[in-house]
Amino acid sequence: MAEREILTYPDFGVAVREVAQAVADSGFEPDIVLSIARGGLPFGGALGYALDVKNVSVVNVEFYTGVDERLDVPIMLPPTPDVVDLSGMTVLVCDDVADTGRTLKLVQEYVADHVKESRVACIYEKSHSIVKCDYVWKRTDQWIDFPWSSLPPVTGGGAKP
């Protein structure tokens, strides 16, 4: 098995604080933290607290289907935030990893014509990402085991019909 990057919950706490500090030090003051579900949810929520931003929202994007397995293109799943609600805002788009960058690019393009400014924060960025993050904790090209997704679901199934 190829070597992997392992993110622990304690390291996640360090990553959140260091990225939040980088955002604060840059002078960027987001009106909203927009997390990309599912992987970006823990990071976006934690950044909301660390940056004292109470307006935290989510956009659902499906791309990965397994380890290094993905759909042809990322797709947004409902419900999607109404872009009119983002009008004139400064938005911090958050995800756990900028791998190909295609998911981040989709979200950036979705909000681009409506927001005042958007910037991207990720825990990890890979060298081949087409989106370069404004804020990133660590760069790696290894597969990453995140603490919230490295173990199988406890339910043994998925969503019930």
From TrEMBL:
It comes from the Bacteria. Keywords: Glycosyltransferase, Transferase. The keyword Cell inner membrane does not apply. GO terms for molecular function: glycosyltransferase activity. CDD domains: PRTases_typeI. InterPro entries: PRTase-like, PRTase_dom. The keyword Metal-binding does not apply. This is Phosphoribosyltransferase. Residues 5-149 form the Phosphoribosyltransferase domain. It comes from Metallococcus carri.
